[in-house]
Amino acid sequence: MKKLYILLAITISLISFIPSQNKPVHALTQTEYFRVIDKTTPFYKNIYDTDPLFYLPFSYYVKVIGHSGDYYHIELHGDNGQVAIDGYSPAKLLYDDDLPVISPYLELTITTVSTAVLYSDQNLLTPLQYIFPERNLYYYGEIITEQGTLFYVGYNNRLGYIKEDDVYPFTIKNHPNDLPSNSVGSPTEQMPSNTNDSSVFGLRAVIIACLIFAGTIALFVCLKNGQNKQKYLNYYQENDYE
Fold it and tell me: Which end of the chain is more exposed for a tag (fewer CB within 10 A), N or C?
């Protein structure tokens, strides 16, 4: 019986040392901002698109308004005269740095150097309107295509593409908030913060089940051995009296 007690004590100890994973679920809200920490973070208009609308400005933030699979549903702009747009980006390329976010978006206007055309598509086949020189355009992001580098911009509440050669050269400064030192310019493997750690809970459940199963088997074996031992003792005792 001593072996049985020791076995049960070991099983209980192992279960008690399994770390608790009951972390609070972090729900996404309308005011939560995640950071672009990869220079090629795509912005898709729809979750099933294969080609991005453009790439998001590096080091700036997006407003997270939902989550679907491996993607965050995000929103950009909506103030200072810029048209708000929503779309999707891979969750692993966005980072919650827990820093106070002031002016999360890149507030940048670029200026036409000559008469330019605003296109609705990356192939530059569908013009939306012509734009005179020295007109300011709101910058959202950019993408490199067979047509060269295109900027996704807003003008007169219209959104579309304009060619790099049609605007004056410009530079984009990083957001004032410091970037994480171990993730500058490269994606992280951070998963969405509103997950319930189901994989961890599953692993814990498997470990507990295995320990209970092992304890049950050990208990059965001990009891079986005890019964056999008792039979052998009874047998020899009966023979002694013959």
Answer: C
